[in-house]
Design goal:
Distance between the termini: 27 Å
Shape: globular
CATH superfamily of the largest domain: Metallo-dependent phosphatases
Radius of gyration: 23 Å
Order of helices and strands: EHEHEHEEHEEEEEHEEH
Number of strands: 12
CATH architecture of the largest domain: 4-Layer Sandwich
Strand content: 15-25%
Helix content: 10-25%
Structural class: alpha/beta
CATH class of the largest domain: Alpha Beta
Largest sheet: 5 strands, mixed
CATH topology of the largest domain: Purple Acid Phosphatase, chain A, domain 2
Strand order of the largest sheet: 3-2-1-9-10
Number of helices: 6
């Protein structure tokens, strides 16, 4: 059984129709799981054109998604594999044990909410937890993502998180990328601002040459160090 996993599509603001890269992964799926924050039931109808859909309610889902049939959580039997699904799995600390208590018989729990892709297994608890990320609202992640699972005779034989956008797709940017982009497109960062002697700046329109105040581009090395620090906080 081939299973496509989505979460946090946030239609219509982020999902304005199934993206072609997502559609390519949905083609041939036997089942589609959506871990909440659909935000518009039309998305579920659109997904149903590819394969049967099971979904849970997210914190941003309204009455239309509830009327479609999405419960707050559910447990599925996929060829003998017990799979739990819920939108918000809570904070990272204690998450595995918390999900084990909520889904005591599950071998796999699918969730969303954080927009942070995660595939984590705990051998002692006998539990694997899986967050596909978001295909359309990547927030601080480099790329939009979705999940692909394969179940064979009650066993999860494959689990992958796959990118569905290039790193620059979409309006979301990391803090460092946003700084770089703003500087590059500003008058200061463009060729229209010409440096004068002693590092002073002469603006082609304002003709400013201030003897004390200077506008300095953030050094590339500093931006890189800030970027490393930013990424260090992006834990699952």
């Amino acid at each position: 059984m081939r299973i496509a996993v989505l979460a946090d599509t946030h239609a219509p603001k982020r999902w304005r129709g199934c993206p072609p890269t997502v559609a390519r992964h949905l083609a041939g799926a036997d089942l589609i799981l959506h871990a909440g924050d659909v935000c518009n039931a039309e998305v579920l109808h659109e997904l149903a054109a590819f394969a049967p859909v099971r979904a849970v309610l997210g914190n941003n889902d309204g009455p239309d998604v509830c009327a479609w049939g999405a419960p707050p959580s559910l447990t599925l039997d996929l060829e003998g594999l017990q799979v739990g699904m819920v939108h918000d799995a809570g904070p990272r600390a204690g998450r595995l044990r918390r999900l084990r208590r909520r889904f005591p018989t599950a071998g796999l729990v699918v969730f969303g909410h954080s927009h942070i892709p995660l595939d984590l297994q705990d051998e002692q608890l006998g539990l694997r937890i899986f967050n596909p990320g978001s295909p359309t609202d990547r927030r601080r992640q480099r790329q939009g993502t979705m999940g692909l699972l394969r179940v064979d005779r009650g066993r999860l034989t494959a689990a992958r998180i796959v990118p569905v956008t290039s790193p620059r797709d979409g309006p979301e940017r990391s803090g460092v990328a946003h700084l770089r982009a703003r500087f590059a497109t500003s008058r200061i960062g463009s060729a229209s601002a010409r440096p004068c002697r002693n590092g002073r700046l002469a603006h082609p329109v304002l003709r400013l040459a201030h003897p004390v105040l200077r506008v300095v581009a953030p050094p590339q090395g500093l931006l890189d160090r800030v970027g490393m620090a930013e990424e260090a906080w992006q834990g699952p």
